[in-house]
Write a structure and sequence with these properties.
By secondary structure, the chain is mostly helical. Helix content is 19%, strand content 5%. It is rod-shaped, with a radius of gyration of 24 Å.
Length: 195
């Protein structure tokens, strides 16, 4: 047995607006970017971590301390992103554009930063242990106090980078450096050798 209720056009429109508003609110949250302690840094309508991070960066969101562990950000545009203290451990940032990004005290252990553009990035105190920085552009980057233990810096461009108190320890430490290799090594670290 069905019943019919008659309502005015005005009441019908109010009910319709309320139902539509509720369905829109339900669709709003797709992905939340949180800190390690669970504090929400950014709420996105996107459904993947990558899309949510890109949306957050594009909107200038504050992602300090965000937990982005293992994020796939290959080729991503992260210019000028505020990622201070962010957990990017094991993240794939292959070919990412991180020019001018603030990565102070970020955890980038084991991250893939191969061919990434980190020109002018602030990596003060960043943990880059075991990071793949092959071919990365680190010109004018601030690497003061950064931990680069066992990081692969093969063909990385460190010209103008500030390496004060950066920690360098090679993999294994058993390969001797030949006298003729010293200028090449120093040049890779951004030193200019005058005649």
């Amino acid at each position: 047995m069905s019943k019919t209720i008659t309502v005015s056009d005005e009441t019908y429109e109010l009910i319709k607006e309320q139902v539509e508003s509720e369905s829109k609110e339900e669709k709003k949250v797709g992905f939340e970017i949180k800190t390690m302690l669970g504090t929400v840094r950014f709420t996105s309508t996107k459904t993947t971590q990558r899309e949510a991070i890109l949306e957050a960066v594009a909107s200038g969101a504050y992602l300090r301390g965000a937990n982005l562990y293992g994020a796939d950000l290959r080729g991503a545009d992260l210019r000028d992103a505020d990622l201070r203290g962010a957990n990017l451990r094991g993240a794939n940032l292959y070919g990412a554009d991180l020019r001018g990004a603030d990565l102070r005290d970020a955890d980038l252990r084991g991250a893939n930063l191969r061919d990434a553009n980190l020109y002018g990035a602030n990596l003060y105190g960043a943990d880059l242990r075991d990071a793949d920085l092959r071919g990365a552009d680190l010109r004018d980057a601030d690497l003061r106090g950064a931990n680069l233990r066992e990081a692969d810096l093969c063909e990385a461009d460190l010209r103008g980078a500030d390496l004060m108190n950066a920690k360098f320890y090679g993999k294994g430490g058993t390969k001797p450096l030949k006298k003729e290799q010293v200028p090449i090594f120093l040049k890779a670290l951004g030193f200019v050798i005058e005649g």
